[in-house]
Amino acid sequence: MAPRVAMMVLMLGALAACEAPMRPLPTTVCHEARRAAPSAGGESIEVPEPTDAEWIALLTDDEEGRPSSCEELLARTPPQEPQCASDRPRALGTLHPIAPRIVARLHREGEDDVLWVATHTTAAGLHVGPLALVRRTTLGLEVQAIGRHAGSADHAEARVLRTDDAIVVSIESELAGDRVADLLVRSGGALVPAALDEPEVGCQAPARIVLRHRAEQHADDGWTIRTVRTAVLDEDPHAVVLREHLTVREIDAADPDAPPRATHDADGIRRLTPTGVRLRADRGPLAPRRASPARGEIVARARRIAEHATRADVAR
Prior knowledge:
- With 316 residues, this protein is an alpha+beta fold.
- It has four helices and 16 strands.
- Strands 6, 7, 8, 9, 10, 11, 12, 13, 14, 15 and 16 form an eleven-stranded mixed β-sheet that branches.
- It is elongated, with a radius of gyration of 28 Å.
- The N and C termini lie far apart (122 Å).
């Protein structure tokens, strides 16, 4: 009998363990419970894709105004600001509440989701709200790191850049005609706006990278100098990598469709090495300079002038 009783005890213990409530991962800072629905045979099925409402409920209050565990956590935690020497936290001004909405979300199989939910706007048109790294488990949606982000919501996208020593979240959007990337660094269970140190430029906080910028200026002789700057964020084991391209064209304002009289193209790679919540660049951004016309371009320009003069003579 003794072996049979022992076996029964073990079986009951195993069943009790199976029915015990599941617990969040040790790295979870807050979560929203979501359990898989049982199938007809009593076995669990795969948890369905979370709805927009479930994503929003993870970081904001519910329909009855009760705050989520993540919202309560943010309310108890003062926002962490990036720091430069003699730097002061930026003032966003009055925040205007809006109906919570998902501004950006990124999902890659096997990785944590990135989720940015806007709950307020500013007078300058920025959107403000919680930003989180979220892991999907059979228990539910479990937040691994959380913070606040204020930025443009125009065509916003999220990216994650990983190095051996850091996880950097990039929120990329359109702002004042440019494409920009705001960078945040994971620090334990927090997402903190990064500070960017650049040679000759100094410290910038919060860190913002220009991914696309176009500018024009007029030369003394009436020509237009058009500058286009583009950049792409990448990663390697030791740094966030910024691949830049710069194009300068001198355009005839009187004949903008004509080939430019001068061009200048430059490519460069900047490495942003994480040190805590700082990103230290090994050099400054590519500096635009006025293009110098090549001999072939000067000859081509002279030929066009001659052709225009010939056509004018024929017309007369």
